[in-house]
């Protein structure tokens, strides 16, 4: 039998995939904020236009423009025209084909860094209908007068350049009176860059999202078992058959989950459906509790697939908040939804491949019941504390442990395998025990432990 | 406040005494070998006392500082020594000072909080050996302002206004004075990139803001010696002192002095205003400018912060702008000298006097300029003095912790920053 060897090979292949995911995840940009009393420029690049959000501290503007806007608030909107004219006289954006047409879309007041700030939204449209090549930003608001003022320029998203992230916008440059022109290097290849970046974002989303991984694990744990009445039992004495069944079942569950979250992702991303974050997160926490209970005692024997689909819908609304923030054009959004899902599926596949063989093997031990109860308990507890935290608007009491797991995927995986190896050492649950299979099991455990 | 004239008088007097004592000591030594020459020697010492004064002006407190530094170093264990004894060529750490609290910018060296009482006493003796009485007092009080920020000191008033609510306990250093301040110092509306909630309690945690007199650091660059070059760096939030010694040559640039809150009154009824002298000197100079001089000296751009603050060590300074100090009246020139003395005078008198004389001699190439406003009661006020060597920026800033003005100021020497500005020439 080649099975043990192939399983070991699988584990090794899996390790390679996980390494690849780790490398991809490491590419994520770092969070950037701008200090008090400085300005910020947030750029969002679309196919035919660029949105520029300027955050200008009112007190500094007064000094630079010899204006007297009331820093206690309310004056910014009243002086919107003055601010718009001041802005357009000191702002320029050009692509490889020349200057873009600038229009001030709105002038509003906000509190940034606890300071009254004028938020000026500018839309720069490419006359030829396409933003191409490097972008040159000419900016001299405030810094034409204030030698000590700084302007923090960040990129929110640039699909065609492969800049899509759910982190804070990446800082591009800090401009000042000596640096009033900045060139945004754009070496992206258009859609291919956008698709690749969004796939990576989908992978990151699972890799950094313990809620989804936990949910998935809770679905996988009973996958090798059969629901008999109100209890989970070992399916057959044939591990191979059990493995195939588990794989089919996991495949079905993951597929239904995918269909569900693709649907809701599309609905929310296109603005057809909108749920408050607290509702979305509460629902996701709820699905984890339900999945935990299901791992204890089968809840929906026939409706498992439907349940997974419904849970997918809930989780999809959570994914969508990430994509909505990218503010993409309809075409790019459709591609982004697809590629984001591809990324999510790839990452889920890694989790399935990483855990299912070990789960199948360990499921044949009588100790697996205890293990299943433990995992299910952890799931219910985590879901409940998370739900409480979401409702209370605070960090979950378990967030420290969860953060550790996210920060140490390899150690966590090794611990999981070690636990499963330990479980597999337990007495057999099945009646008929073949000596050959027994030997195989020992070898597999050794392989898994050494992975 | 440091005034020149009394300092000069003291200098002349002490110089004469030193000269006399030195000569007498020499006589005594001679006398042991040859008593016959004793009378002539004594006679010549009286005749040459004028020359001796000149010589004394060249002398420095380097030996005194070296002795105090060695005494301090002797109190440290090996681990502490490893922290404080850095290489003279460690330009990165030398330049690692800031107007931001530790936590945002972590200083090199050993902090007061990690010293025993004995070590602290030796450190304070060293600072006293390095600095003038006024300079030492300023350093101590700027550190105390940090204790006010941290809520470690009970205050009854801030910025001259009663602040009953500001009275707080020192229990666990979690008084939270900043958020409990009175009218003149209402709770912070602004943060320097960090929420005010980060202060008072938990200030030590997770890279948050850290305030307090125990978060001041000392570091030595190069072997402490009366002959070769070394630097003593001392500072924390709102204070950065770079005292460099090379034999008898002593400098104290860059020196950053800032303060928030500007004034406070403790529960014991004592009032403090550590930078009162600097503020008064800057205010007097700005107030003395005629309309014509003000127009001539206004900078072409606006400055809301010091330009040559932390990290500005590549030797490039803004182009000269403003009015030549030599074109000011004698009284105004004296006010310029008073301002310079406020910074250089942090050093012992003898060292300060020599440096000040050098700067005064350069008034024909030294420019005074300003932007924003000419009043220490205006947050836009910025004053600059720029000569061939001297560089002083005095900036009134909006509050960070309190909703009231605070001060940032920096003194540099374009040739003698860190003892020798060319160290940083790339």
Short overview:
The complex is a heterodimer of chains A (451) and B (426). Chain A has 14 helices and twelve strands. With 451 residues, chain A is an alpha+beta fold.
User: What is the total number of structural domains of chain B?
Assistant: 3
User: How would you write the strand order of the largest sheet of chain A?
Assistant: 5-6-2-1-8-9
Mean pLDDT of chain B: 80
Main β sheet profile of chain A:
6 strands, mixed
Low-confidence region ranges of chain A: 1-32, 431-451
Strand fraction of chain A equals 15-25%
Structural class determined from secondary elements of chain A: alpha+beta
Oligomer class: heterodimer
Please name the two chains that share the biggest interface, counting residues whose Cβ lies under 8 Å from a Cβ on the partner chain.
Answer: A-B, 17 and 19 residues
What fraction of the residues of chain B are assigned to beta strands by DSSP?
A: 15-25%
Q: Termini of chain B, distance in Å? A: 38 Å
Shape of chain B: globular
- What's the helical proportion of residues of chain B? 25-40%
Please provide the count of β strands of chain A.
12
Q: Overall 3D geometry of chain A?
A: elongated
Account of the protein in words:
Chain A: It comes from Demequina litoralis. The complex is a heterodimer of chains A (451) and B (426). Chain A has 14 helices and twelve strands. Chain A has helices spanning 3-26, 58-65, 75-78, 80-88, 191-207, 210-220, 239-269, 277-296, 304-324, 330-362, 368-392, 399-407, 409-424, 435-450; strands at 39-45, 49-57, 91-95, 98-99, 101-112, 115-125, 135-139, 151-158, 170-175, 181-184, 225-228, 231-234. By secondary structure, chain B is of the alpha+beta class. Chain B has 13 helices and 16 strands. In chain B, strands 1, 2, 5, 6, 7, 8, 9, 12, 13, 14, 15 and 16 form a twelve-stranded mixed sheet that branches. A four-stranded antiparallel sheet of chain B has the order 4-3-10-11, with helices on one face. In chain B, strand 5 (217-221) and strand 6 form a beta hairpin. Residues 1-57 and 164-207 of chain B have low confidence and may be disordered. The chains are: A alpha+beta (451), B alpha+beta (426). Chains A and B meet through helix 2 of A and loops of B.
């Amino acid at each position: 039998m080649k099975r043990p060897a192939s399983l070991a090979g699988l584990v090794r292949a899996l390790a390679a995939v996980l390494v690849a995911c780790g490398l991809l995840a490491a590419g994520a940009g770092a969070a950037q904020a701008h200090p008090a009393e400085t300005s910020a420029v947030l750029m969002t690049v679309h196919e035919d236009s660029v949105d520029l959000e300027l955050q200008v501290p009112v007190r500094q503007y007064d000094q630079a423009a010899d204006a007297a806007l009331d820093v206690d608030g309310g004056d910014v909107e009243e002086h919107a025209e003055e601010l718009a004219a001041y802005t357009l006289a000191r702002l320029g954006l050009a692509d490889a084909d020349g200057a873009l047409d600038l229009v001030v879309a709105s002038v509003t007041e906000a509190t940034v860094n606890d300071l009254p700030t004028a938020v000026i939204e500018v839309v720069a449209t490419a006359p030829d209908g396409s933003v191409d090549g490097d972008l040159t930003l000419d900016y001299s608001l405030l810094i034409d007068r204030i030698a000590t003022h700084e302007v923090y320029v960040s990129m929110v998203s640039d699909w065609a350049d492969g800049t899509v992230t759910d982190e804070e916008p990446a800082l591009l440059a800090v401009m000042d009176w000596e640096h009033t022109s900045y060139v945004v290097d754009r070496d992206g290849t258009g859609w291919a860059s956008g698709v690749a970046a969004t796939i990576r974002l989908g992978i990151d989303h699972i890799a950094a999202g313990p809620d989804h991984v936990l949910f998935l694990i809770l679905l996988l744990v009973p996958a090798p078992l059969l629901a008999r009445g109100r209890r989970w039992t070992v399916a057959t004495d044939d591990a191979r058959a059990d493995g195939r069944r588990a794989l089919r079942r996991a495949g079905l569950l993951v597929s239904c989950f995918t269909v569900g979250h693709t649907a809701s992702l599309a609905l929310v991303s296109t603005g057809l459906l909108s749920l408050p974050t607290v509702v979305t997160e509460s629902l996701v926490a709820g699905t984890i509790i339900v999945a935990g209970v299901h791992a204890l005692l089968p809840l929906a024997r026939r409706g498992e697939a439907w349940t997974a689909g419904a849970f997918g819908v809930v989780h999809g609304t959570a994914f969508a908040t990430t994509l909505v923030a990218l503010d993409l054009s309809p075409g790019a959004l459709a591609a982004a939804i697809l590629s984001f899902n591809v990324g999510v599926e790839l990452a889920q596949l890694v989790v399935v491949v990483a855990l299912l063989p070990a789960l199948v093997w360990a499921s044949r031990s009588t100790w697996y019941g205890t293990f299943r109860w433990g995992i299910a308990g952890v799931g219910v507890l985590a879901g409940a504390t998370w739900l409480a935290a979401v409702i209370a608007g605070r960090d979950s009491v378990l967030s420290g442990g969860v953060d550790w797991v996210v920060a140490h995927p390899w150690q966590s995986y090794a611990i999981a395998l070690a636990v499963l190896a330990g479980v597999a050492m337990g007495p057999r649950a099945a009646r008929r025990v073949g000596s050959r299979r027994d030997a195989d099991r020992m070898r597999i455990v050794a392989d898994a432990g050494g992975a | 406040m440091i005034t020149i004239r009394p300092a000069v008088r003291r200098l002349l007097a002490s110089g004469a005494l030193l000269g006399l004592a030195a000569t007498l000591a020499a006589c005594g030594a001679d006398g042991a070998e040859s008593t016959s020459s004793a009378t002539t020697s004594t006679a010549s010492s009286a005749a040459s006392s004028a020359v001796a004064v000149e010589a004394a002006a060249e002398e420095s407190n380097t030996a005194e500082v070296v002795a105090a530094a060695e005494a301090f170093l002797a109190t440290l264990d090996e681990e502490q020594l490893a922290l404080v004894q850095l290489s003279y060529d460690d330009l990165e750490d030398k330049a690692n000072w800031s107007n931001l609290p530790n936590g945002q910018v972590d200083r090199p060296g050993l902090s007061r909080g990690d010293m025993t009482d004995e070590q602290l006493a030796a450190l304070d003796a060293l600072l006293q050996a390095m600095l003038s009485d006024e300079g030492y007092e300023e350093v101590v009080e700027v550190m105390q302002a940090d204790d006010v920020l941290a809520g470690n000191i009970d205050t009854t008033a801030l910025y001259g206004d009663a602040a009953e609510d500001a009275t707080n306990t020192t229990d666990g250093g979690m008084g939270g004075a900043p958020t409990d301040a009175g009218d003149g110092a209402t709770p912070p509306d602004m943060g320097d990139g960090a929420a005010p909630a980060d202060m008072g309690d938990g200030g030590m945690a997770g890279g948050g803001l850290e305030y307090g007199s125990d978060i001041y650091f000392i570091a030595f660059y190069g072997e402490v010696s009366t002959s070769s070059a070394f630097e003593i760096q001392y500072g924390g939030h709102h204070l950065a002192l770079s005292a460099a010694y090379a034999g008898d040559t002593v400098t104290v640039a860059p020196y950053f002095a800032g303060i928030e809150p500007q004034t406070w009154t403790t529960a014991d009824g004592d009032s403090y205003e550590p930078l009162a002298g600097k503020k008064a000197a800057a205010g007097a100079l700005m107030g003395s400018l005629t309309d014509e001089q003000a127009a001539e000296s206004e900078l072409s751009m606006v400055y809301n912060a010091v330009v040559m603050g932390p990290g500005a060590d590549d030797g490039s300074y803004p182009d000269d702008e403003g009015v030549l100090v030599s074109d000011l009246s004698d009284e105004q020139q004296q006010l310029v000298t008073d301002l310079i003395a406020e910074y250089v005078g942090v050093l012992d008198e003898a060292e300060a006097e020599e440096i000040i004389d050098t700067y005064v001699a350069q008034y024909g190439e030294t420019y005074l300029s300003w932007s924003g406003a000419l009043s220490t009661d205006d947050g836009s006020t910025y004053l600059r003095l720029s000569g061939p060597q001297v560089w002083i920026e005095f900036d009134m800033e909006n509050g960070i912790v309190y909703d009231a003005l605070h001060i940032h100021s920096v003194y540099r020497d374009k040739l003698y920053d860190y003892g020798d500005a060319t160290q940083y020439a790339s």
